[in-house]
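Hello,

Following up on my earlier ticket. Below are the two sequence lines again, exactly as submitted.
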Amino acid sequence: MNRTEDRPLTVATADPPVTAVDEHAHAWSPATARARFRDGLAGPTAGVAAGHTQVNLISVPADWAYDMLLFCQRNPKPCPVLDVTDAGSWTTVLANGADLRTDLPRYRVWRDGELVDEPTDVRAHWRGDLVSFLIGCSFTFESALAGAGVPIRHVEQGRNVPMYVTSRQCRPAGRLHGPMVVSMRPVPPQHVAAALRETGLLPAVHGGPVHCGDPSALGITDLGRPDFGDPVVPEPDDIPMFWACGVTPQAAVMASRPPFAITHAPGQMFLTDARDEQYRIVA
Amino acid sequence: MNRTEDRPLTVATADPPVTAVDEHAHAWSPATARARFRDGLAGPTAGVAAGHTQVNLISVPADWAYDMLLFCQRNPKPCPVLDVTDAGSWTTVLANGADLRTDLPRYRVWRDGELVDEPTDVRAHWRGDLVSFLIGCSFTFESALAGAGVPIRHVEQGRNVPMYVTSRQCRPAGRLHGPMVVSMRPVPPQHVAAALRETGLLPAVHGGPVHCGDPSALGITDLGRPDFGDPVVPEPDDIPMFWACGVTPQAAVMASRPPFAITHAPGQMFLTDARDEQYRIVA
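Thanks for your patience. The regenerated structure is below:
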C-alpha cells in the first residue's frame, strides 16, 4: 500500500461483538435504537432499524470545520454530508430528540491524530466548540441491495463490513489530507448490475462503487485482512465490489492530526429518523 | 410574496441581448467560449458549447466562506457545489487554464448586499481573500431534456430562462439566509414525466423540480414578470415546472448583506470543461 505516512493508519480497536446487537434490532424504531445505545448497548449497526438512514459522525473544533466541510465537498463519494451542526450543538435535524454525545453505540476520541479512547458516551469529552458532520453510510444502501435480491455476505455471516485504506489519495482541503477508505462486498456476477444500479441511485450514501474486481487497483494486498471491520468469506465466483466509505474522515484525522476529534467507531453508526428512500434519486 | 425584507430582492439589470451570443456558439469548445467572453462578448449562455457543464459563480471574502459552504450544504437543491477555490485563486479544477476574473460573459459586484457594478471583467474588483464557489446550473440539464424530446421554450423563443424569487426560505447558515430562487420551464403534459426523470438523474445540477403546476404554491403571483431573466410565452396546456436555481446565493447576498461579493450575471454562466454526462447518475 502506498502511504506517505510511516505509521499504520489502522489502530487497535475494542473487540466488537460480531453478531447483531439484538435479534430484534432490525425492527426497532430509530428512537428505540438510539435509546438502547444511550443505555450502553454497543456493536455494529448493520441491519438495525431497517430502512432508516445510518450516518458516520465526525466532530471537530470549529477552527477545523471549514477544512472538514471543504474536504467533504472535494471528496463527495467518501464524504457525502447529510447534516452539519452549529458549533457546540449535539442535536441534528436528522433525528428528533437525539443527543449526538450519547446515542451512538461506540465512539472514538482522537488527540493529535491518535486514538485515545473508545467510550460508549462522550459527554466527558465534549467541547463547546465542536462542529459535528453527519456523513452518509453504505449500510443505507444495503436495504436497497437486499430488496433487489443482492446477497449481503457480511450480514449473512454476522460480521461487520470489511473496510480498507486504499492507495487513492483524497483531494486535500486546507490542513486535511489522507487516503480514501472503502467498504467491500463480495457480489455474485449475476447481481453486479443490480448492485451498480441500486447504489448509483443513492449518491447521498456514497452512490455507485469506486471499483469492482481487482483489489490491487486500490492498493489492497489482502482482502482477508481489512483495516477496519471484519474479514468476510466470499463465495466462489463472487466479485469484490468497493464503495467509498465514511470512515475516510477518520483516515484524514490519522494522517492530518487535528488537535482533537470525536468520531463513531467503524460500523457502529448513528441512527437517524430519515428513511433510506428519502435519499434515493427519483428517475 | 412573503418576504421579511422591506426592499425588493430584485435589482435593475444591464439590458442583456435576448438572442444567442453567437449563432455558432453551440458548437464552440468551452475554451473558445471562455476566450470570447474574456475578449468582452456578453450575453446569456444557454446552449453555448452544448453538452458542457455551465456553473454559477459566487465569490465571497474568506471570512464568509464557511457560512457560504454551509449554506450550500444545507440547501443542496438550489446550491449544488461543484468546486470551491482556495482563497485568492482564480483557477478551478473544472476548467483548464481558465481565469474566473475574466472568463464569464458578465459579472455582478455587490457591496453590503447592494449591486454596485455589472462589468464584463472583475480584475479591478478582485481581492486576495476571495473564495469562489462554482455551483451547478440548470442549463446543464437542458441538453438532457432536449435529448429526451422535451421542448425548451426559452431557447425556442431566444430568451434567457425566467427566474423567480419564491416564498420558500432556505435553511439559514451562520450569517446567511434568504429565499429560494427557481427557474421555470413550461413543459407539455406528455413530456412532464421525461423532464422529471432526466433532471432527477442530475442532482449535481439541481436535480428534479421542486414544484410543478401552481406558481402560487411558491408565492409567485405573475409568471409574466420574472425577477431575473426574461418572460417566456407558454403554449396552451403547458405545465410550468420549477427547478431550484443557482441564483439563490445572490438572493442570500441581497438578504444577508455580506460586505462584498462577486457573482455571475443571471443566465450568463461560466463554461467548464466538464461534460454534462459526468454529472449524470448511472442507473
